[in-house]
């Protein structure tokens, strides 16, 4: 997490959902047990998969350019909450070496399509508890969450087996 990069990105593309989280999550100041070591790489990690990452613009361009572990970046094609993939997963893809990453956008997926399936009564329960939270169970037209999960599974397994 690079505070200067996040601040700069929020000045360019201010979004309350992303930029407003900085204070709420304690990202705006150094935390008591925050690692001071800039290099947090782990030689055991041979491949990585990113599932529609949020707050991606908190990574410095230099740190993304330094990633040499093959990475599969998966993104939702449907923008919810003014969080377009171009400014989140797309940011990671733009700044990583083409030799280190694969990037795929699921046009019928939303950010929440990457989490577990919802039970039949989930939308009503979520809306009753917090109006608007039913969006967690919404996917794009033309594909069910199960179908999207199967596509994602195929892509992830194929990538990890390379």
UniProtKB/TrEMBL annotation:
InterPro entries: AB_hydrolase_fold. Keywords: Lipoprotein. It comes from the Bacteria. This is Lipoprotein signal peptide.
């Amino acid at each position: 997490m690079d505070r200067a990069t996040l601040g700069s990105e929020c000045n360019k593309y201010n979004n309350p959902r992303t930029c407003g989280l900085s204070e709420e999550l304690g990202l705006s100041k150094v935390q008591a047990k925050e690692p001071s070591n800039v290099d947090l790489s782990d030689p055991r990690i041979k491949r990585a998969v990113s599932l529609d990452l949020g707050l991606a613009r908190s990574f410095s361009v230099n740190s993304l350019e330094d990633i040499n572990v093959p990475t599969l970046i998966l993104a939702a094609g449907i923008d919810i909450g003014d969080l377009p993939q171009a400014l989140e997963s797309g940011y990671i893809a733009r700044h990583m070496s083409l030799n280190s990453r694969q990037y795929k956008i699921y046009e019928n997926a939303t950010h929440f399509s990457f989490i577990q399936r919802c039970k039949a009564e989930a939308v009503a329960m979520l809306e009753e508890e917090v109006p608007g939270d039913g969006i967690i169970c919404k996917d794009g037209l033309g594909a069910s969450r199960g179908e999207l999960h199967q596509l994602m599974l195929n892509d992830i397994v194929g990538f990890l087996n390379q």
